[in-house]
Amino acid sequence: MIHTFAFQYRKKNYYFLFESENSSLLKIERPVFLYFKKKYGALNEVEESEYSSVTATDIAEIAEEEAELVRRGVIGVREVKTTLKRTGEIKSLCLNVCHACNLTCSYCFAAQGTYHAEAYMPLKTARAAVDFLIEKSGKKRNLEIDFFGGEPLLTLDAVKAVVEYARGACEKAGKRISFTMTTNGVLLDGETAAYLNETMDNVVISIDGRKAVHDALRKTVNGGGSYDAVIENALRFKKIREKKRYYVRGTFTKNNLDFKEDILALSDAGFDQISLEPVVLEEGNPLAIRTEDVERIIDEYESFAEEYIDRRRTDKWFNFFHFMVDLEKGPCVYKRLNGCGAGDEYAAITPEGDIYPCHQFIGKAEYKMGSVLDGSFDPSVQKIFQNSSVYTKESCGNCFAKYFCSGGCAANSVTHEGNINKTNAVYCALMKKRLELSLGIKGVEKKLKIEN
């Protein structure tokens, strides 16, 4: 599928053609941009008037170049539907070692961090979860456990016991195991930071940007702000982390649609791996993002994109998660079609040992998959997720972004549409804009490097 778009950087327009089927990105001139928009019926009134002045000779030359690109397989590639072999093997677990939390974040999907119960995972349950992963992984050799909560650092001894047990069990089974920790950072003191740095392959620290924004929504159980403690701990951890993987992850809501300032605040604080995600809440929630917010958010992304390029040319270089796109060695076919693999290759385990497709499905009885304690597992629930992909979602069929969003988040689809095979228009619009900006940034940065 061919998609053309314009990208503005410092009052100069750049034009690009993107072939979604093979991830080809071409910088094109304005007449070529107009030619393809005309071909696919996407010209607006102003562009239609401009196109009328393009000469027949120019059009003939563009058509000739188009034919050559098609002949070489650069553009015009037909969609080839790939049938993935579904083995039922699970390779990743989200291990909710506790459902208690020392923060009461207003937008938390887990009932302000409590999941309606402050349960801690017994070591017996944790070991059963590891055994479940090894058994269900089949022939897969590389496995992963993500420590989640609640706040997993409230039960650090349990985390340490799981790491030790999982390493030994995987070694006996001839498998490799890696670990990720998602933490709010409140308890990330020096000794804890040293342990996470040694054992975790990736560490995600939650910070929402500016102090006022963070403290308004990420309060302690006593009602105070958490920013000062978190920022101190996170910066100390970033310093010792060096080249190992980490990132700070924030959430923006209806209350801070000027979220560019929150991203830049994290950059100014000294972080170079940053993510800031739109909140996922039911529409009735006052913090939820709605249809009327989309245009404002898109403007904010566009404004941020220019600042992002500028900073990456200085000593304030950083990566922004939503602008990272790899066209040469991008996601594997499975991830392009199915995303994170929730409910298929990925599952979440509660402190009580219950199995769910991911942490955001916990508590939804119809999606409970079984229990690691009694050995039960319902393959019919897994089948629901195995049968879902960009091919089963009607709105994905003619979307240029489908191989990069992979049909979107299943939990988001259930929250807003009640069905994992339906997509939400708001989040689709944001994804499309982010991909356009990611591609535009990639193209402009390549040109700037050539010019410099």
What are the key terms here?
globular, alpha/beta, 15 helices, 3-stranded antiparallel β-sheet, 11-stranded mixed β-sheet
Detailed description of the structure:
The relative contact order is 0.11. The chain is of the alpha/beta class. α4 runs parallel beside α5 and α10 packs parallel to α15. The strands form two sheets. The protein has an eleven-stranded mixed sheet with strand order 10-9-8-7-6-5-4-11-12-13-14, covered by helices on one side. It has a three-stranded antiparallel sheet with strand order 1-2-3, sandwiched between helices. β1 and β2 form a beta hairpin. It is built from 15 helices and 14 strands.
Give me the secondary-structure topology.
Blueprint: E1 2-9, E2 12-19, E3 24-28, H1 30-39, H2 45-51, H3 56-71, E4 92-96, H4 123-136, E5 142-148, H5 156-173, E6 176-183, H6 190-199, E7 202-206, H7 211-217, H8 227-241, E8 245-252, H9 260-269, E9 273-278, H10 294-311, E10 319-320, H11 333-338, E11 346-349, E12 354-356, E13 370-371, E14 376-377, H12 379-386, H13 402-405, H14 410-417, H15 425-451
Parallel strand pairs: 4-5, 4-11, 5-6, 6-7, 7-8, 8-9, 9-10
Antiparallel strand pairs: 1-2, 2-3, 11-12, 12-13, 13-14
